[in-house]
Each structure stands twice: as structure tokens, then as C-alpha cells.
Amino acid sequence: MVNSEQKARIDQVIGWIGEVFQTSRDHALPDFHEWIARSGLPGLASTGVTEEQIISASQAAASCGLHGLKSSGALDRIN
Questions:
Q1: DSSP string for residues in 57-71
Q2: pLDDT given for residue 79 in this prediction
Q3: H or E stretch including 48?
Q4: 68: Cβ–Cβ under 8 A, 6 or more apart, which residues?
Q5: In the prediction, which pLDDT does 55 show?
Q6: Which residue from 1, 21, 24, 25 is spatially nearest to 11, judged by alpha carbons?
Q7: Distances, alpha carbon 47 to alpha carbons 32, 42, 43, 44, in Å
Q8: Residue 49 in 3-state DSSP?
Q9: Full-model pTM
Q10: Domain parsing of the chain, residue ranges
Q11: Structure confidence at residue 73 (pLDDT)
């Protein structure tokens, strides 16, 4: 479950993505996804990262920021 603080952070990031792609918030994530596909960037699953690991890392990042993500060991569980 996403708490209000996490939701605010996610909304902020979606706003940044929208600014980069010069699009609305509603189109920010689909446009980002299309850009990733057009750029030929592989998804995390192609590197062997499991859905469980992705969820764990994203929850840690949402709750404590990148510095906290590094110190939480979540990145170590992905590598």
C-alpha cells in the first residue's frame, strides 16, 4: 500500500517525466515507456532481476530515497 508521502513523491517524479517529454501528466509514463522501447533499452527482467526484487527496491526507494536505498541493502539484493 502506498502512503500519502510515497504518493506525493511518485506524483513529483511523474511531473518531472512529463516536463522532460513536454507532455501532460496523463501521458508522461506512457511516453516514457515508448521512449524506452524505441531506444532499445532492456527491461530489468532481461538482466535477471525478478519482480519481487523490483518491488522490494522500489518500496525501499519510495520510503527512504536513494541514500536510504543504498544503505538498506535493497540494491545488494538485486545484484
A1: HHHHHHHHHHHHHHH
A2: 45
A3: none
A4: 60, 61
A5: 84
A6: 25
A7: 20, 8, 7, 5
A8: coil
A9: 0.59
A10: 1-41, 44-79
A11: 55
